[in-house]
Amino acid sequence: TTSAETLEFQSEARQLLQLMIHSIYSNKDTFLRELVSNASDALDKLRLEAFRDKELQVDTDDLHIEIDTDPEKRTLTVRDNGIGMSRDDVVALIGTIAKSGTAEFLKKLKETKDSAASQDLIGQFGIGFYASFMVADKVTLLTRRAGSDEGVRWESEGEGTYTIETVPDLPQGTSVVLHLKPEDAEDQLFDYTSATKIKQIVKKYSDFITWPIRMTEGEETATVNSMKALWARSSSDVTEDEYNEFYKHVAHDWNDPLETIRLQAEGTFEYQALLFLPGHAPLDLFMRERKRGVQLYVKRVFIMDDCEALMPEYLRFVKGVVDAQDLSLNVSREILQQDRQIQLIRRRLVKKVLSTVKTLMADENPYKYETFWKEFGRAVKEGLLDDHENRTAILDICSFASTNDPEKLTSLREYVERMKDGQEHIYYLTGESRQSIENSPHLEAFQAKGYEVLVLTDPIDEMWVDAVSGYEEKQFQSVAKGEVELDDDTTDEQKEEFSGLLTWLTTTLSEQVKEVRLSSRLTTSPACIVGDTNDVTPTLEKMYRAMGQ
Ligand code: ADP
Ligand code: MG
């Protein structure tokens, strides 16, 4: 036994704890979902580790979760006999917040004065273990890593510090003991010492957990969840609420998903998939160390998180579960990347996700598609570069700003429908902002002719417009580049008249430009600079410079 040590929480962790202690979150019951969700993850991890490492001295006979209440002491305990944590694990996992984007989240939260908006932010971030401090003024965690002899006792009142010590003779796994806040004692709504109340919460938020969640009342121990894997049940038996709660568990999100997607394949290669489009982008969507969403199960057994073989990079925000019947439990990430069946599943998942978004787009209520595009559109457009097979399907679900209506985005289909007689191309202009694009002299002649121009302001737009040739046989054509031919209405007399000036300009500016031409592009501006068809655009040039190239 070592003596107890008092350590400080990492500063981000401290700030989150403060939030939870002075909880502004309306639905306190969710703390239990978080603890049960962690316990379930710990059991999944243990089963997998025991399977992979036959030497490991662990007990996997009766993996389960237990919840105890003690009205006298006003405690609530959630116990699992899962993987547990070592002392270092506890310091790293409980004393620090490893989630990428935490700093940004806290910054946003600080800037938010309105409490409904900050609740919404917290929901998007998800607080996990720290949610305990919404209902407890002290939390004791006892844990022993499976296969190790050393137990750890951790305790904190959620202020700045925690104590940690090594203790002997702990059972394998983790117990979290919540010392419930005295100020909630009189409030029925927060009576977390009531077994009835706890059962209701478990039923509501954690019914689908595939491990038994047990409670003992008097002499009787009962399993309070139905334990059925949601993806294996027929969808007519599952309520929307159940899907939503399951989503929160797999996605570590506190909000409902935007859309639920089900897929089932029978026959020689059987699998089930339950996928979700989240309602908001994760903070790390564009960060280097970002994660990809779906979990892989084999015959109901959890195999891995973030299975990158199942989802392409540009759909990394899709969450959910794929359960395959015929894979070995031993599969590794490397094997999966090569596996033909996995590749087939992935192809189907991608097509299904894209077609689901297309359905949302056709929906009378535009909210879902608009939210989807606002949150994930930038990532989806990466697919125009990476996923040749589905390029058309991706173009079909894209929306862009355009000169047609400053308030509304347009799909390419709508653009094509509005094309004028004689207009051959889909015109676009890239730039840093709508404002800079609208002020561009390049637009003048197109506007004069009534041709619509797409206003592309995402950095990724610069890239895909070069890679993608067209949509519905119409080519994409930049209005700022070389050979745009609006019917040339400069006359021979004009050419004659200006030839002297042009020669003079060409010589004088020879260091700066390749050529000076007479143009019908402009209506009010006297001159403008155009790129050669194959030149990089100014924005791209800036990007390259910023990247140090
Ligand atoms: P998240 O579950 O989103 O990772 P949490 O705050 O809920 O965030 O938990 C942080 C980490 O602490 C978990 O990822 C896990 O590694 C560890 N942890 C929490 N509870 C347990 C538990 N009951 N058994 C083992 N590890 C746990
Ligand atoms: Mg968690």
UniProtKB/TrEMBL annotation:
Cellular component (GO) terms are: cytoplasm
Per its UniProt record, what Pfam families does this chain match?
Answer: HATPase_c_3, HSP90
Q: Which InterPro entries match?
A: HATPase_C_sf, HATPase_dom, HSP90_C, Hsp90_fam, Hsp90_N, Ribosomal_Su5_D2-typ_SF
Keywords assigned by UniProt? ATP-binding, Chaperone, Cytoplasm, Nucleotide-binding, Stress response
What's a single GO MF annotation on this record? Answer: unfolded protein binding
Name it.
Chaperone protein HtpG
Its localization reads: Cytoplasm
Give the span(s) annotated as A: 1-333
How is the subunit organization of this protein annotated in UniProt? Homodimer.
Lineage, top-rank taxon, reads Bacteria
- What family does this chain come from, according to its entry? Belongs to the heat shock protein 90 family.
Where on this chain does ATP bind?
A: 34, 38, 80, 85, 99-101, 124-129, 174, 333
Query: What's this chain's function?
Result: Molecular chaperone. Has ATPase activity.
Q: Which residues form the signal peptide?
A: none
Q: Where is the Histidine kinase/HSP90-like ATPase domain?
A: 27-184
